Amino acid sequence: MNAADIFAPALRLLPAEAAHTLTIAGLKFGIGLPKIDASQWETATRLPKSGLVLPNAIGLAAGFDKNAEVCHAMSQFGFGFLECGTVTPCPQPGNAKPRLFRAKKQRAIINRLGFNNKGSEVALCNLARQKAELNCPVGINIGANKTSPDFISDYEHGLAAAAGLADYITINVSSPNTPGLRDLQYQGALTELLNRCETAWRKILSPPPVFLKLSPDLRQEDIDLLVNVLKTQGQWLCGLIVSNTSIARPDYLPAKLRAESGGLSGPPILASSTILLRTLRTALGEQFDLIGCGGVASGADAYAKIKAGAHAVQLYTALAYQGPGAIDAINRQLRDCLDADGYKTVSEAVAADI
Ligand SMILES: Cc1cc2nc3c(=O)[nH]c(=O)nc-3n(C[C@H](O)[C@H](O)[C@H](O)COP(=O)(O)O)c2cc1C
Known about the structure:
Blueprint: H1 3-11, H2 16-28, E1 45-46, E2 53-54, E3 58-60, H3 71-76, E4 81-87, E5 100-103, E6 108-111, H4 120-130, E7 138-142, H5 151-162, E8 168-172, H6 187-202, E9 210-214, H7 220-231, E10 237-242, H8 255-258, E11 263-265, H9 270-284, E12 289-293, H10 299-307, E13 312-315, H11 317-322, H12 325-340, H13 346-349
Parallel strand pairs: 3-4, 3-13, 4-7, 7-8, 8-9, 9-10, 10-12, 12-13
Antiparallel strand pairs: 1-2, 5-6, 6-11
The structure holds flavin mononucleotide.
The site of flavin mononucleotide (FMN) has 28 residues, from strand 4, strand 6 and helix 11.
């Protein structure tokens, strides 16, 4: 157990956002930093379309390190890859507080932060300072400013800005906390988004792989239309991240929390996000690299996503509840799951359930 794991229970006594702010501050000063070999668990994986090579299959999901302030610390904890952001072209404060809530019993979170961030320029400077010391790939997740008159131009800007530094870029059109943003997942708007982003991407000298991050709340008819649009995309779009948070409110959450607006994360969205992942893998075959995200709290959860088609997995909420020890535990358990089924590598198990 390292110092960060020891502090974790005390942090959980604080209001959720205060605990997060304190955690970022502590990590910036290097408090409790171990130096973990990210390849020790033998869960390395390669994403075939993007060419990303990960020392292990467990990555940090977007939203934890919005301004790329603690990439170095998070790579020291042993993550196989990191995703910074969401960053928007201009800084913005996000929604009014309180905007982050814990459902402790369910080990879940509801957030309506609303892309609070210091703007892409600050995040990119922060990342540039740390990049040489990172021992895993790092992606930058891009979004749109709440008051932007043209959301798509913010993504064009984000692609151009992040291209020189990011190992991959994620186009995030699935946050429920920016009004209108999720509409970009639907047919006409999605086509325009992808066409304009592809044009921006083609202007970049050596463009990084691009992923699209989706919502777990898509209905079957939306998925069918989405799949049709995705099938027309060429090589430029390498992968999908499935998924973001959900606006669903299962009955078993406390009534007071169910009434809070925002995105639900953690175990309550494990099933829906894994089902969407499987649906997309079934419909799209091997056209895209898939990253599974949503409710992963154990190696078995990660393994279920891999067998449903994911090449790698991301998590956020489990880190908030379990502390950084989760990275070791989940990787170990994942290795055990692979061994039990006779798989030598993660890649061998990808889509095994399909
Ligand atoms: C507090 C919080 C903030 C988040 N912020 C972002 C964000 O800025 N951009 C994004 O793409 N996803 C964001 N997410 C969603 C996560 O990246 C992830 O998709 C989701 O939480 C599901 O994974 P989990 O169940 O492991 O947390 C956020 C999640 C949480 C809990």
